Amino acid sequence: MAGVDIKRRGAILESHVRVMLQAFSGEPFEFDGRMVQVTPRGFTDPHPPLLVGGGVEAAARRAARLRLPMMPMNADPGLAEWYADEAKKVGFEGGFVMRPSGPTFIHVTEDPEKTWSEIGPYVLHEAQTYARIQTGGQHSVPMVSANSIEELKASPQVLVGTPDEVVAAAEGVAADGALTFNPLAGGLPPDLAWASLELFAAEVLPRLRPQN
User: Domain-by-domain residue ranges, the chain?
Assistant: First the structure.
């Protein structure tokens, strides 16, 4: 649709991420034949948290070359091995692979059944759209094959729960794992998303224990 060669998507992604890292530095750099400087610098040093996605060897090696952590779309143990191998080649230390091991859609509410009636069609739309774009043989933990909202509810990847239920889910995630918060899934109305975010900030986040 955008007139971009899909066969070059990996190289294009890597190039664009490198430009972002230069921009985050706050220092002048050359881009597309001209000098650019992005100010003010972000609060986080050396740049805001940035993780590289993907689910194959090329993606793992790309993340290490970029000297960034990786958040893959599946739990293939080979990804960490390829990442470590490439990191050693480029002399990068301190990186990590954050594997998906908990729910990949979370919505916090005091009344899950009422909330499902409000957000269900949006979450189902996103799940079905994501499932349709997967290529043959591709494995993605966030992918849910669902024909109805009831099937979504039965998936371990989808959690529409109370603060207590979300805290319990977080406590079950491994130290190198991650929960995924997707507030505007499927075009969810901002008012509904904002209510979930506020409840997460007030009732969930203060109860999460940092991993050592």
Answer: 6-90, 105-207
